[in-house]
């Protein structure tokens, strides 16, 4: 079951990387190329939404004790999807601003350079955020594994303590029987 989820995760990662790359290209294109790129990004965003839905269905079928790790991943993917949609919206606004500038005859070269620079910085921030989120996920998973190990060690400790108590009881019984046998030998 988790292999299906992991397969969807890989598809989602590839798809979001493509979307991010295309979103970055939108403000740099002109005319029909730009319209085509926007249409392609919209289709890919829809595919990404469908992948998220499939992943959610897979998470629902996972046993409850394992579900927490996958649920935290899903939250991260949903946040990433929200960021992609916001970036796409921003690139479309940039696109509509350019169309307006073309119609009004404004020269937006300096604002275009600033916009491109901001988009590059935004993309870098998003990559850093994704890395931080991945690190956070690893920390959460490590914490969960540590908790499971502590629980296992606690159960093992209880077993050892019970075995020690049985050994003490057996030792006490052997002592009693030894005293009884010694008493019988003396008589």
From TrEMBL:
Residues 31-61 form a coiled coil. One of its GO terms (molecular function) is SNARE binding. Residues 114-126 have a biased composition (Basic and acidic residues). Its main location: membrane. The keyword Protein biosynthesis does not apply. It comes from Turnix velox. GO terms for cellular component: cytosol; endoplasmic reticulum membrane; ER to Golgi transport vesicle membrane; Golgi membrane; late endosome membrane; SNARE complex. This is Vesicle transport through interaction with t-SNAREs homolog 1A. It comes from the Eukaryota. One of its GO terms (biological process) is vesicle fusion with Golgi apparatus. It is found in: Endomembrane system; Golgi apparatus membrane. SMART domains: t_SNARE.
